[in-house]
Amino acid sequence: MARTHALESPSVAIAGVTGAVGQEFLAVLAERNFPIGRLKLLASARSAGREVAYGGKTHTIEELKEDSFEGVDLALFSAGGGVSKAFAPLAVDAGCTVIDNSSAFRMAEGVPLVVPEVNPDAIAQAGIGLGAGGRSGIVANPNCSTILMLVVVHPLHAAAGVERIVASTYQAASGGGAAAMSELEQQTRESLDEAGGREVRSKAVFGRTYAFNLFSHNSPLQPNGYNQEELKMVHETHKIWRQDALPEAARTGITATCIRVPVMRAHAESLNLAFTRDLHEDEARELLAAAPGVVVVDDRATETFPTPLDASGTDPVQVGRIRRDLSRPAGRGLDLFLCGDQIRKGAALNAVQIAELLIA
After folding, report:
1. Is 106 annotated as a binding residue?
2. Is the domain of 39 the same as that of 107?
3. Is 342 annotated as ligand-binding?
4. Residues 48-65: pLDDT tens digits?
5. Which of 94, 187, 225, 276 supports an S-S bond with 69, CB 3.0-4.6 Å?
6. How many CB atoms lie within 10 A of CB 196?
7. What is the CATH number of the domain that holds 45?
8. In the chain, which residues have pLDDT < 50?
9. Do the Cβ atoms of 342 and 175 come closer than 8 Å?
10. Which phi and psi (to 5°) does residue 159 adopt?
């Protein structure tokens, strides 16, 4: 459905508003003064009727239903892949544009997968927009680990051609949602409770001890031995960099190992990069210092580098430990370490930045 006029203050719906990302949607929209003509808050039936304050007004949460998107221009979805598959197409049919935070449509043909600092033009190429001439449609938010990685790696790729990425991620409880964050807190209390025998009983989310432990990412393991989280980083990067249609030998080689660590929020990633031309670490620092959405935290004298605690609650992706890969010819490889807030840039902030592109 094409639009005939610009929308300066679109009507906005948030599907899944009671979750960790849904709550962060509200915070980011307010912080960035996103123009909202009318706000509609949607969640499951058990949350319907609850009141939420936003913009100096009290809004009542409504149950998400098939007709929830009538008269809505823009919907931010963070309610899980099943909900997105069921309701996002209905929203589009009603003339609404959807920004979806789940994995439901990321690899779907014709659905732009967008990191605004990397491929903002993908939205216009798909013809989607809230301005005159734009059509309603779905724009997919990439996986949090992919977003954080590409905000840092893309400026280096543009300058020197990244031919291989070896990624190791250390992912916080926030990636599992509010329930996972609560479970980590409860398990930590139980682990330290001498009266309770330090027995961990709260295992509903991950089914194992999370406090003071780490384990392979809990996404389903695939027949090739990779889990879904690891493969998302591979396939999503190829799509964002428009390499998915290329022969495999012509794509950037990417391999990943994703680990869940007992950190409340903000993911960390260790990256090993190989380049098609020499790229000195000093040049890399200059490129990253000038890159949007990136903050270089790399003081060797004081050993000050990115940490999840410092990244939590902030928008930029922090990057440091930038150094030459000693295993490769001089200048042809770098190692670096990054941290970024999974709920903000890894989810809500990236979605709101996409929304800003839609009304530009």
Report:
1. yes
2. yes
3. yes
4. 999 999 999 999 999 999
5. 94
6. 12
7. 3.40.50.720
8. 4-5
9. yes
10. -90, -35
